[in-house]
Amino acid sequence: MKKRLSLLLLSAVLAVSSLAGCKKTEEPKDTPTTTPTTTPTESTEKHEKVTIKIGMWPEDTNADQIELFNNYKLLCESKYDWITVEPAHYKYSVESFIPLAESGQLPTVFETWFTEPQKLIANGYVADITEQLKANGWYDSMDPRVRELLSKDGKIYGVPRDGYALGMFINIPLFKQAGLMDGDIPKYPKTMQELAETAKIIKEKTGKAGFVMLSKDNSGGWHFSNIAWAFGAELQVQENGKWKANLNSKEAVEAMQFVKDLKWKYNALTDEILQDWSSGMQAIGTGNAAMYFAAQDAISVPTKDYGLPKDDIALVPMPAGPGGQYSLMGGTPYMFSATATPEEIDAALKFLEIMGRAPVLNEDTEKGLEDDAKYRKDNGIPVIPSFQVWTNKDYINKVEEVRKNYENINYNLYKDYFEISAKTLRTEEPNLTQDMYAELYPIIQEVLTNENADIQQLLDKANSNFQQKLDASVNQ
Questions:
Q1: Per the count of CB atoms within 10 A, which of 24, 33, 176, 389 is most buried?
Q2: Half-sphere exposure (CA, 13 Å, Cβ side) for 408?
Q3: Residue 165, exposed/middle/buried by CB under 10 A (0-12, 13-18, 19+)?
Q4: Tens of pLDDT along 260-317?
Q5: For 167-329+429-473, CATH number?
Q6: Is CATH 3.50.50.60 correct for 2-164+330-422?
Q7: 274/272 Cα distance (integer angstroms)
Q8: DSSP 213-267
């Protein structure tokens, strides 16, 4: 699976890079100014009436997106009078998912991560949507390698929202204050050693954190795995047909020592050690940190959500280490509750189409693409390329055409990220990935709060724990 997805996203980034020359959390789209007046195209004479629960519904505190989704709802119910749309506020987490799935309370459609589909499929938590994809014209437009990732035994259980490649957000004003600019381009670190040194300089000259290291939850293990690869670590290895945990290798120990040094040797991190994905975004967006591992799909968070002007952010490649340069790749699929009926699945796909998330070109999807780009431009969100997970050339060309029409950035602030990512992509570790992250992040907490923490001992224990999980669930 690692080789398969690597080829997929490599081709995706190459496509983006070639388009760039001529130029995820999911970003909102513009709100229609009038009530939809579309005449229903499919009436209840042809369909059983259904109610669908949309798990991506924004929280009540996000007024602009609530209005946006309410308009999606109006348009969907107007165009398809057999569909009733209900909001369902659900953000995927490993802890919350199983109770909802076991009790039959999952939304009709929800978002998860690329690490999860095979586990959800194997446990019977998600629905086979093969026939509905074919009926709606999506099946042949999905990249076959993505389709395989979301499939088992020839049946498909999800559709991709987008893909991403980890890089690093740069808060440009802090780089300016620290004297780390080359004209209007930040002198970003090219190696892990330069990252530590640059972060130290920024902390000394500005009083703000040079770098945000995640440590509060699984996201800490997620980011650490990319650091570990840069130090040459292989966190999972296969021997004689069995998977072996390798969290305590010499290279992994060196990577964790690097993390420890960021705190105790370089004094380069945030004063608040317990950082998660959201607080890291806030630190970058509010000017309390200068560097943070992140990807293109989350560019709206520090800008729109936390107020960083679009011209004050850059996205650069992951730094290289003594073991090489890698960019962790992943993505977000939409999946469908195992309790959803075929009619409900079909209705949910039609809602995604109205959102502009379908690989077909029609009045609804084209408007969705236009609204998305216009919204970002109007709200100070950088309008940048995306990683395409569909193969419909007309659709891909339309996406790029719309993006160019609304471009609002200095592309030199993103150029290296897109070009270098094409050569450094690497998929997440293949087995029980979230369980692996859960073993790693408490160690990050320990080394950042205890200068005397024994890294080898901590990783030995984590490795033993993870091996037990591999033996129980994978090596059978």
A1: 389
A2: 17
A3: buried
A4: 999 999 999 999 999 999 999 999 999 999 999 999 999 999 999 999 999 999 999 9
A5: 3.40.190.10
A6: no
A7: 6
A8: ---SSHHHHHHHHHHHHHTT--SEEEETTEEEE-TTSHHHHHHHHHHHHHHHTS-
